Here is the input.
Amino acid sequence: MQSLWRYCGALLISTLAACSGGGGSGGSDSSGGASLSVSTSSISVDSVFGAGQINRQVTVTFSGNVLVAGSPPGSSLPNWITINGGGSSSPATVTLSISPDVIGTQTATVRFGTGPTAGDIKATKDVVVTMRVSDGFGFPQHQLDASGYWKSPYLGSETIVLNNNNLNWQLSSDAAWLSVGQTSGTGSALLNISLDTAELPVGQHTGHINVQTPDGSKTASFPVVFTQLAPTLTLTPEQLKVSANELEKLSDSLHVYIGGPGGTIAVPFTLDAVNDLQFSASNGTTGSTDITVTAAASAAALAPGIYSRQITAHASVPGAVLTGTTTVQLRVEARELLIQNPGVALTHGPDHDRLSASIPVLASDGQSANFDVASDQPWLTATRSGMQVSVVANPTGLSNGLHFAEVAISSAMDAQVDSIRVGFYVFDQAVANGDKQTFENYESIILVDPVRPYMYFRAGFGGVLGYNIYTGEKVLDLDLKAALDLYVTEYAAISSDGRRAWLLCRNNSADRIVTIDLEQGALLDETWPAFQSGGSNYSLTRLRLLDTDYLLTGNGELFNADTRTAVSYSGGVSYDSSMVLNASEDGRWLMAYGNNHASTFRLLQFKPSRNQPFAVSQKALVSFDYPDYVTGSTISPDGDNLLVSHYIGTADNERYHQDGSGTLADAAAPTHYVRQASMLNDGRFYASRSSYDTPSNAVVLYSDAGVEQGRIDTADEVWYMKPSSDGLRLVLEIGRNTQPGFILQSYPTLH
Here is the structure.
C-alpha cells in the first residue's frame, strides 16, 4: 500500500479494498454519519508525448476523522497519475499529477473516502481522469513571450523544444524578424531561435515557427509573441527655476533624454510653446540635449509672484508618440529702477572744469522704463534722456568750496525714490602741478572719494589721512592705533555716495572692519561680525548690487554694508587662498588673483537677486607658466576691459576685452613692468613704469591699441596712482630714493 498522509495518527492508504457507502461519482455522499464531497467529478487533459507533468487540483470536503484516496476495489492507480497533498482538516486540497508518457487515450478513477478510521470508511466519491496524448509531433510549450525596446537589439537567443516520434521534419518562420538556426532534422530537438526586433514598430507582433513532415502529413505551429516597447522621453530636472524682471535673470538648464536600456536614441523632438518662457532651442535630434530656459519678455507684465508652468516635449517613433513633461517655477520680481553709480563729482576752477555728467539708470529687467528726475538745488539742472540722467552744474553765484545736491529719481513702477548725490567743488586758485605733500612715513593711497576732490591715505600703519587733491589741504586725520589699537591695512572701500568708508584693519589676533563717517570725519561705533575664514585678507572690495553696497573680503566673505550682516551666496568658486579683488562699478564683474605669487587670475561674475541667494560664477581662468606670477590687475568701470601684470625675471602684461559674457579676447598691451594701472571704459589705460624699465619712472597713457599717447616723467618710482573722481587729476605717490617716505603729486589727466 502507498502512504499518502497521516491524520490523528491513522495511516491513510491508496487502495480502498472495502469502502462502504458505494462509489458515486462527483457530488457528495454520506453514510453512517460521515459525509464527503469533491469539487469535480471528472478531469480531462490533452497533451503531447514527452510534455511536462500536468497538475490538477481537487478540493475535498469531509466530516470523518480521516480522508483517504486511491482506486476502487478491483483496480489500481496507473503509473501516469500520482496523488499528493491533502491537509489535516476539511476542506482538503488534493493535487493529481498527470504525466503524458503514454500515446493515446487513458482513463483512471480516483476514489476519495472518509470515516472514523482508515479501516472503517463510511462515505466515498469518485473522480474520473481522462488523458489524451498525441504522438508528440509539435511543440509542448504553448508560446514564447518576449519584449524589447525600439532601436535596441534583442539580447541573447531563445530555446524551444520540438517533440517528434522519430519522424523527419522541416522548419520555417513566417516573420522576417524571427529565425531558427536548424531548419531540418529527425526526432526531438532543442531549437535555438533568434529575434531581430530593433526596427519593429512599437506594439505587439506575432510570428510562428512552423514544422511539418516532408510529405506534409503532419504539421504544427509555435507562436512567438514579441512586444516592442517605446523608448522613454524624460525631461530633467523635475522642477526648473527661472525669474523675470531681474537685471541678471535666473535661467535654468533643461535636459531632454530619449533612450532605452541600450542608451540614447537619436529621435527628433519638439517642445511645446509655453506662455512666458523662452527656450534656447525648441527642438533637437541627438537623444540627449541641453536647453536653456529663461523668462520671456511677456513675463515682465505679470504681477509679482511665483507662477507654475509646464514644459512638454513630443517625439514620434514607429507605432507610438512619446511625451515627457516637467514643471517650471517662474518667479516674477517687482520692476524697479537701479542706480549703479549714485555718486558724482563735478568741478569748476581755473583750467579745471567738469560741469556735467551722464549717469545710467537701469530697470531691473534690463528694459526701458519711464521715470522722472528732479534736482533739489537751483545750481544743478537734471534732465532725462532715455535711460540716462544728465546733470549740469552752474557755478554762477556759488562760493568757493563744496556744494551738494540730490537728484531724485521716481517712477510709477518703483515705490522707492532713488537719488543721485552730486558734489560740486568750486575754487578760483590755479593749481600747480607736481608736489602737494611729503610724507615721512610709509603711505599708500587707499580710497578715492566719489563726490569730493579728496583722496584718503594710510599714514604709517595706524593712521588715515585725507587730502584735497587741488590744494593739498588735510581734510581727515584719524589714528586707529591710538583709538582702537588697530593697524590699518592698504585694503579699504568707500560707499557709492561718499558718506562712509570701511577699513580692513588688523591686530595681533584677527582682521576687522572699521567704519568712518566721512561727513563728520569720525569713527563710527559699529560692530561687524567676526570673519569666518581663516588667514589674512588681502582685499576689501565694495560691490554695488541692487542699489545696496556690499563688502567682499579677500577670503570670499560678503557683508551687507548697511546692516553689517553676512550674506550667503552660491557658486563653485574656491577661495583657497586669500584673494586680491578688483571690481567693476556695478559690482557684477570681479578680477581675482591669489596673494603670495599665484600664477593664475580669475574673472568672476556676481548675479544678485532680491529673493534668492546671490550667485557667483567663474567665467574665465587664465594661467601663466610657473614660476611666472601675477603682480597686479585692474578692470574698467564697466567691466569690459581688463589688464593683468605678471613677472618673473622679465615683465609682461596681458590685456583682455569681454563683451558681457565673460569670454576673454586678447588685446594689445605693453611688455614693461607695471607696478600700478588704471583701466578706462574706452579701453585706454594708465600704467606706471618702474625702475626695472628703461626709460623708467613714468606714468604712461596707452591707447586701446596699446600705443603710448602721453606720459608724466617722475624723479623716482611711482608706487601708487589714482585718477580723481572728477576725472581731471591724476594723483601719484612717488617713492624717494634719498630718504624715507613718499611724495604726493598731482597732474592733469593725460589725453
In short: The longest strand covers residues 305-317. The longest helix spans residues 480-484. Residues 1-22 have pLDDT under 50 and may be disordered.
